[in-house]
Amino acid sequence: MNKTLLIAIVTSVIIYGLGLAYLYYSNESYEQEFALYDVNKNGVIDKEELTLESQNITAQGAKRKTIKEGAIVLIPFSLFIGAFAFAVTFLFAKIKTINDNEIIKSKSKRA
User: Fold this and answer.
1) Which stretches are transmembrane (predicted)?
2) What's the number of CA atoms in the CB half-sphere (13 Å) around residue 2?
């Protein structure tokens, strides 16, 4: 049971860490692309800077999650994946126990 719980915890932490890393690098990429269209570097795309591509970037920015929001959203997701890993590991352990017991019983019947 300890090994099963350890696998579930490690899986949850790995999923959470990978999610945070993806979110961080995705936000960095977005900020670099936004800076490309922000010609006067004031942090806002003004009417003079407005193009079809810059409109797409600002629309994408409105839908994006910040790192703080993403960190909170990732918690239930990583816990769900950890629970799934726990269930799979637990069931495989039970299958192994049942198979081992059946092999012992079949050997004792032959003797």
Assistant:
1) 6-25, 71-93
2) 0
